[in-house]
Amino acid sequence: MKTETARCRSCDQDELEIFLDLGLKPPSDRILTKEMLKQTEPYYPLEVAFCPHCTLVQILETVPPEDLFTDGYEYYSSFIPSLLKHSRENVLNLINSRKLDDDSFIIELASNDGYLLKNYVEKGIPVLGIDPAPGQAKAAEKASVPTLNAFFTAELARKLRDDGKQADVVHANNVLAHVADTNGFVEGIRILLKKNGVAVIEVPYIKELIDHCEFDTIYHEHLCYFSVTALDYLFRRHSLFLNEVKKIPIHGGSLRLYVEPKEDVGKSVIKMLADEADQKMDQIVYYQNFSENVIHLKNKLYELLQNLKAKGNKIAAYGAAAKGTMMINYVDVGNNLIDFVVDRNIYKHGKYMPGKHLPIFGTEKLVEEIPDYVLILAWNFSEEIMEQQREYQEKGGRFIIPVPEPKIV
Ligand SMILES: [Zn+2]
Prior knowledge:
The longest helix is centred in the last third of the chain and has 21 residues, at 290-310. Helix 5 (154-162) runs parallel beside helix 6. It is built from 14 helices and 18 strands. It is of the alpha/beta class and 409 residues long. A seven-stranded mixed β-sheet has the order 7-6-5-8-9-12-11. A six-stranded mixed β-sheet has the order 15-14-13-16-17-18. The protein is globular, with a radius of gyration of 21 Å. The structure holds zinc ion. Residues 8, 10-11, 13, 51, 53-54, 56 line the site of zinc ion (ZN).
């Protein structure tokens, strides 16, 4: 199916080809308070398309930010232990390899609660975080991480540069796919970088999404789904060069990109570009079976839950994040199948999941109530969650992991 109206977020060509339609969905991070339950919830279309010109996969709809990042936006990175460890290792490696010291300057875009930058602060290296979410920016300041509470744009980058604030390292983890003005954001990164600086950017890898049927990582906040090929095009248009790339396991399989103002393309990038071309990831054909696979997974998971429920089992779910919202809404799992959702994030307790309005509690409720099964919505942290919940398991509880194929463990 071709659409003539939408333009590519990267190359601005029209003629995007839609290969998946997930229907109308509520914004996935818009966790609801009791009062919000009485209001009409916003729903938006969720269609995924491929750009035949620059190969970028993207959703068509851009939901207004005020519907996404309200007071309901409660994602605090510091609640995720494996993310903290991952970030710390990344920073320590960069300090070593780039010989960073108190003369260096580090900027992080979407710095959240300072979870990453605090590793530099500890070593006496000056930093600046930039994050649009007020609660997170405040939490960062409290953790001694100087933070600008603002949306990052090319204009803000120019202002910082004119104030002499260019960076040796610009971090941008899990944000490039979330910004409505993709080109403005990349342009801003180029402006912020010193001549010898490097942008270290992490994005989920579309190959993992397609090959492992991780359809629940598609939501309105997440506008682009990147291949190395699409990223290479994007950066080059802004005189930036993707010089190294690493596959990393975080968030169901991601890429860590090393992007610099000077061209010095390493073997890692050359190899991945060749691999992607071999697998036809630069053509629509690679994406065409995905819709069928998603419907298959949806039906299988629904059947599994329904059968368990019919036998009188009590089922809970773990993970009140965006992915969880997508999974329960797309698979149509309401309070007929799931009793409640648990999450470690205390800001979400006493609130409700978007769309299905399942109540959210602290994780201790699993041990208190011992539901027969727990559907792990945050499946990218399955091992960590099962490890934390050993007591629940020892008392007879079991887990369901939904992707790439629903299975009971
Ligand atoms: Zn394009």
